[in-house]
Amino acid sequence: MAEHEAVIDACGDLRRACSGGPLDVTSAARRLTALLRPHTAAEEAGLFALLGEDPEFRDHVATLCDEHQALEDALAAVAAGEVARMPAFELALRRHIDREENGLFPAAAVRFAGPEWDQVVLLTPAAGPPA
Fold first, then answer.
1. What per-residue string of b and e applies to 7-21 under the rule 16 or more CB within 10 Å gives b?
2. What is the C-alpha to C-alpha distance for residues 9 and 3, in angstroms, rounded to an integer?
3. Cβ atoms within 10 Å, residue 51
4. Mean pLDDT per 10-residue section of the chain, whose length is 131 residues
5. Count of other CB atoms within 10 angstroms of residue 32
6. 16 Cβ neighbours under 8 A, 6+ residues apart
7. Structure confidence at residue 6 (pLDDT)
8. DSSP designation for 54
9. pLDDT at res. 128
């Protein structure tokens, strides 16, 4: 969840850049991408992979993975100068994070015991250096 906070902070920087703030759009988008890409890859390799094996969660996990790609595509468009897409991107990002933090993560906490969390840790790539 701390990574989500950093992503939201970087998204705010990008929003301000798109509105003529102190950062340029390219730099702000690059920073957000550097946080978002490794985060979504780690989720998909670890927690999502294990939860996705459960038929009860399979469709929900697939939807979240599709959203990861849609968010990356929208962010790339904003970075390429389509700043009018920023409000929709930010709304989609916040809704996605809400579904994870208030839906999938609590469900995983209830569903998984110790061994499953050990497996998630093993599957999840190590975090890189902070952006």
1. beebbebbbebbeee
2. 10
3. 23
4. 92 95 88 94 91 92 96 96 96 96 89 84 71 45
5. 26
6. 22, 23, 28
7. 94
8. S
9. 52
